[in-house]
Design a protein that fits this description.
Chain lengths: 301, 250
């Protein structure tokens, strides 16, 4: 039973079991949300929110309140600030996002550097999943469960919002509320995820699983299931890799997700790059003069 | 108001004025659509057709003017599910992972509970709408896997599932082949004949005289309105289209 030993050995350590639970929980919440974020075109928003929580986390440590409260306040505040600046200037959205999150991130760095003894900056930036306390574990589980419950309850409205905002408005739904709800859920999932992989890499968990699943299916429900499946597998692989290869846990988890994305990008049927190349070559051989490389489906008649 | 007076029209907009920065997109525009009729909104790109739709749907607040839908404000009409919108092709993300039946089902959301879980009634309405537009066999297809004409019919099916009384169609014949256009024309006439009202924007002049009961010629203001044959006269069209009269591609 070498394999069983190999699998159970890390779990004798309490801190590793907690790391496993926190990582999988955070990854599942992020993966579910990522399906909507990539369809809304909000990936950059995830990046912005995750960086913008730094001052919140730092202040929470200084004041001595749970880190998730500070992070959520600043995450939601960043979203609100971006919204205000966007609606009162003619700047493009990505410009506004860039200005706001770098300002908040710099403010966070300034706060951390002025109180060096209390906060370990590297832990905030890159996660400290091996040092998770029981209290932090419960914060992650409770916030994760709340986020998941709300997003799944409102999933059809959120999908409609992403697909056809005008229709949502015309049938009397409150599209501003739904946008705000999705942004709030984004902030919550950043809070959940940063404990596992840190501020810098949490955005990967909010983009990559959804992007990978999108390449694999044209059904939203299947996309959700695939994103969760992929992220759980990648989290487990990452944790074990980090234990046996002695590498950073957050980095290992994100690398595992990226590896799955790369494989899917290359070989998934029918849209993988390798299959497309193969089809082009085959059809060239069959009819050298034919026009190749057209989109396989969806051409307007 | 006497109860004997005629019912209000499906749509009545008066004196709508909208400016973007210093450019007047709509200047005192008045449009009305009688209940059970099809009205064609004709004008070149930039003539204010999309802006007018946005004002009618309450997506922008006009600087002046009023909108009444079945005698109600736009907001009330929307909340009662009276209005449906069929977007133009380029405004839709055709790679979005939803099936044809999912899209049609979205017509029912205003009638469902907060989680939008479909009841047997909702499912029956979706089935009937798909059957009606001839897409029952394609219901599981991803929306982008349909042809141009089928895509339009899927969105019309969504407004049928919604049981909307007023349909706003933005360029319904753009990117649609001739046979699909004929199918769509028949469908819209059927909907009109059961008492629904339609406002459709188009720059396809032939379609207007075939299909519409009335027409409005728009060029940031109303150049002409009335029966299509009275509106689409050579002199009016020259005004609306300037030198660039758009000839429909075969």
């Amino acid at each position: 039973m070498d394999l069983l030993n190999w699998l159970t050995e890390p779990l004798q350590y309490g801190f590793l079991t907690r790391a496993l639970i926190v990582t999988v929980a955070a990854a599942v919440v992020s993966a579910v949300l990522s399906c909507w974020l990539i369809l809304m075109g909000w990936s950059l928003m995830g990046d912005a929110v995750s960086h913008a929580v730094l001052p919140g986390v730092a202040l929470a440590y200084i004041v001595g309140i749970p880190f998730s409260i500070g992070a959520f306040v600043f995450g939601a505040g960043a979203v609100a600030l971006i919204g205000v600046v966007r609606s009162t200037t003619k700047l493009k959205p990505d410009t506004v996002i860039g200005v706001v999150f770098t300002a908040l991130f710099a403010a966070g760095l300034a706060i951390v550097s002025s109180t060096p003894s209390q906060i370990d900056l590297l832990h905030i930036l890159f996660g400290n999943v091996l040092g998770v306390t029981d209290g932090e574990l419960w914060q992650v589980l409770i916030l994760g469960a709340v986020t998941l419950a709300v997003v799944l309850f409102k999933r059809r409205d959120l999908t409609l919002l992403a697909f056809d905002r005008t229709h949502a408005h015309v049938i009397g739904l409150n599209t501003k509320f739904l946008s705000a709800l999705l942004l709030g859920l984004l902030a919550l999932s950043v809070v959940v995820g940063l404990q596992a992989v840190g501020i810098i890499l949490v955005v990967a968990m909010l983009i990559t699983p959804g992007a990978t699943a999108f390449l694999l299916t044209r059904s939203f429900d299947r996309m959700l299931v695939l994103a969760v499946g992929i992220t759980v597998a990648a989290s487990l692989a990452g944790i074990y890799a980090s234990y046996y290869l002695d590498i950073s846990t957050g980095a290992a988890v994100v690398l595992a997700q990226s590896l799955v994305f790369t494989v899917v990008y290359l070989v998934a049927r029918p849209n993988g790059v390798l299959w497309q190349r193969l089809r082009v070559r085959r059809s060239r051989r069959r009819s050298p003069s034919a026009h190749v490389g057209d989109a396989p489906a969806g051409a307007v008649s | 108001m006497s109860t004997l007076s005629a019912a209000p029209p499906a749509l009545r907009a008066t004196n709508l004025t909208v400016s973007y920065n210093d450019v007047r997109a709509l200047d005192g525009v008045g449009v009305s659509v009688e209940t059970g009729s099809i009205c064609g909104l004709v004008g070149v790109n930039g003539s204010g057709k999309s802006t007018l739709f946005k004002a009618l749907m309450g997506l922008l607040v006009p600087a002046a003017g009023t909108v009444e839908l079945y005698g109600r404000t736009s907001r009330e009409a929307r909340q009662r599910g009276l209005v449906a919108y069929v977007p133009q092709a380029e405004d839709v993300d055709w790679d979005f992972p939803v099936s044809v039946a999912d899209v049609v089902g979205m017509g029912r959301y205003g009638l469902m509970g907060p989680s939008r879980r479909a009841s047997a009634v909702d499912r029956a309405a979706v089935d009937a709408a798909l059957e009606r537009v001839g897409l029952a066999g394609l219901r599981r297809r991803q929306i982008g896997e349909l042809s141009g004409g089928q895509r339009k019919r899927a969105f019309v099916a969504r407004s049928i599932a919604q049981d909307a009384k007023l349909l706003l169609l933005d360029e319904p014949f753009a990117g649609v082949d001739r046979s699909s256009e004929a199918t769509l024309t028949v469908l819209l006439k059927e909907l009109r004949d059961e008492g629904r009202s339609v406002l459709m924007s188009t720059h396809d002049l032939a379609g207007v005289s075939q299909l519409c009961d009335s027409a409005v010629l728009l060029h940031n203001r109303v150049l002409a309105r009335g029966r299509p044959s009275d509106v689409l006269t050579p002199s009016n069209l020259a005004l609306a289209f300037g030198g660039a009269l758009e000839i429909r591609e075969p």
